[in-house]
Amino acid sequence: MQVLLAEHSGFCAGVRRAMKIAAEAFDSQDEWYTLGDLVHNRFVAQYLEEHGISALNSLEDLESGGIIIRSHGVPPEIIREVKERGFGLKDATCPLVKRVYEKASFLQKEGYDVAVFGDPDHPEVKGICGWIDYQAAIISNKDEALKLKHVSRRGLVAQTTSDEEAFFDTARTLMSGCEELCVINTICGATRKRQNGARDVAAKVEMMVVVGDRKSSNTRVLLEKCQATGVRSLLVECADELKAEDYNNVSRVGITAGASTPDWIIKEVVNWMEELKDNGLESLENQVRAEEHDV
């Protein structure tokens, strides 16, 4: 069996930046915490915990030390409270998430009724809404867009890890509910490349394995993209969830991973497959790279 590794798997630039900021606190004399998970991956949370950085559920739990703002960002009142209470602050908000704040604020100042495309329960979406005083409609599909009241001017931005096709479908639906629609595509380029890379590999294999945390929005979208190709697709959080019987009669399997999936977790999945060489499973990572180079 051949193993094809999708391009752009694993940590994106925003997650790497957040991890670097957190690492700067490892040897600090002060206590540092994250408010919620720094990124949506339990193995990253465990890694940070081992280095002395725990996750808090609320600022009320903070008695001393400092807060590292998660990569998904937070509403502005959180940052104000941290500063007013005199705690330390390290901001690991992804720069592309901050760009959504700027675009949403621009639309609001220009007189548009703002809609945010995304998961209403996701911390990034909650943060976006906070930066425009919670004066936004949150929609996650075109059916919800149809239920919005008719307005003169509507502005639309997106959670950075959204499904781009669903975003544009929703944007087209919104056109019937206003006289003027301003759409700003704030889905990050890394998300787009990751989804395209997963689809490309899915077209060449009989089975796809998506590696990532089940709480991760971009990982779930990756799984949906793979499933939409018609290829059997599985989501696993780590190598321990892999089962040899799933690969019976599979000649080619593809692997992709979410933006918050650590390299060491991806490596463990690849190594697990390599251990099955005696059963005919062979990693052809170099061959795949050569094929991509030829393309």
Keywords summarizing the entry:
single chain, 295 residues, alpha/beta, Cobalt-precorrin-4 Transmethylase, domain 1, Rossmann fold, 3 domains, 5-stranded parallel β-sheet, 4-stranded parallel β-sheet, flat
Layout of secondary structure:
Blueprint: E1 2-5, H1 13-23, E2 32-35, H2 42-50, E3 54-56, E4 66-69, H3 76-84, E5 88-91, H4 95-109, E6 113-117, H5 123-130, E7 136-139, H6 142-146, E8 151-158, H7 164-174, E9 178-183, H8 189-202, E10 207-211, H9 217-228, E11 232-236, E12 252-257, H10 263-274, E13 282-283, H11 285-294
Parallel strand pairs: 1-12, 1-13, 2-3, 2-4, 4-5, 6-7, 6-8, 8-9, 10-11, 10-12
Helix pairs in contact: 4-5, 8-9
Structure description:
- The strands form three sheets. The chain has a five-stranded parallel beta sheet, with helices on both faces. Strands 3-2-4-5 form a four-stranded parallel beta sheet, sandwiched between helices. A four-stranded parallel beta sheet has the order 7-6-8-9, sandwiched between helices.
- The C terminus is likely disordered.
- About 45% of the residues are buried.
- The protein has about 300 residues and is an alpha/beta fold.
- The two termini are about 20 Å apart.
- Helix content is about 40%, strand content about 20%.
- It contains eleven helices and 13 strands.
- It folds into three domains: about 110 residues, 3-Layer(aba) Sandwich (Cobalt-precorrin-4 Transmethylase, domain 1); about 80 residues, Rossmann fold, CATH 3.40.50; about 90 residues, 3-Layer(aba) Sandwich (Cobalt-precorrin-4 Transmethylase, domain 1).
